[in-house]
Amino acid sequence: MNPLQTDFAGSFVEIDEAAIIKNLNYLKKKSARDQVMAVVKADAYGHGAVRISKLIENDVDQLAVATVDEGVQLRNAGIETPILVFTVPDSNQGTAFREYRLEATISDFSHFDYLEKGTGYQLNFDTGMKRIGFYPNQVAEVKEKMQKYDHLSFRGLYSHYATADDPGSEFVESQMNTFKKIRSCFPSDVPAHMSNTSAILHYDIDHFDMIRPGIGLFGYAPGKVQSDILIPVMSWKTRVVLIRDIKRGERVSYGGTWVAPDDGFIATLPVGYGDGVPRSLSNKLKVEIEGELYPVTGAITMDHCMVYLGTHKVRNGASVELMGGQSWLANTWAEKAQTITHEIMCRLTPRVRREYQ
């Protein structure tokens, strides 16, 4: 007996792997840096952390994740590239850092005590983000502490820009200069990094030893100013599952927030906020069906959304482009949803199938 099919996804994303490599190479060229720490946290911004890490591991020097669990996932998949964990370590994670060869972020004196002998770590300094990190005036105290914990392995130091998302921020140069002073206090053979995608794209500054791109790998700049060179790598597709008549004055979906202006047709799509379509895009999103853009009407539900076709009656099963291709890109979704592109991509849930090209 043949095994039953187990993949009945209502939608799928196509991910262009060649475009990821092109984006990576462009960011290297733009920054004039060959050393790269590729950020693949949050399942590589929804693109699939294991698959993407395997794709780029020979072209980058390090990978960065948010959590220990994300690092363990990559190690269990056979990834050998050095991995930095961004978030604050817990006191019960010391063995995991050592066993899985993960580099910890130390941003408080207590963190030294959490790590076991031989564990690698990188220092984080707060140059203006006010999130985590030692303050610049603590450098001497940090170095003294490092000497007492010489059974740990110092692998790097870094900071993070707070206002680099769009061009023209004077605070970017201020943070860069602060980090430059900090960097001068540590050995030159230990890599320092601060430049994320936005700093690489928008600022002619010192990118230190290594760049740290994340969303740029997937074709987007973080802020409102997009790049003409980066290639969006993801397109999201589904299909029409039902066509229904609608009469002028009839309402659609929960709350009846949309009223049909004329007689016509409604197409139902098998995707909703349970798949990652923000409910805040209700009555705002437009999708492409058979070469035409149509509006999503009424409240987006957990598993479905509805599209007003006017008097056009597309075929049942017609292909729908939700994102990319002839439809809106992720940054337009973000603009209409009043959020950022990162959040749009990270919303994609596991029930959306990933296909790689």
What does this structure look like?
By secondary structure, this protein is of the alpha/beta class. It has helices at residues 17-31, 41-46, 49-56, 68-76, 94-99, 139-148, 170-183, 197-202, 330-337, 341-346; strands at residues 12-15, 37-39, 62-65, 83-85, 102-106, 120-124, 153-158, 192-195, 210-211, 234-239, 242-246, 251-252, 258-259, 264-269, 286-289, 292-297, 305-310, 319-323, 353-356. The protein has two domains: 17-218, Alanine racemase (TIM Barrel, Alpha-Beta Barrel), CATH 3.20.20; 234-356, Lyase, Ornithine Decarboxylase, Chain A, domain 1 (Beta Barrel). It contains ten helices and 19 strands. Strand 12 and strand 13 (258-259) form a beta hairpin. The longest helix has 15 residues, at 17-31. The radius of gyration is 23 Å and the shape is elongated. The two termini are 31 Å apart. The model has no long low-confidence stretch (mean pLDDT 96).
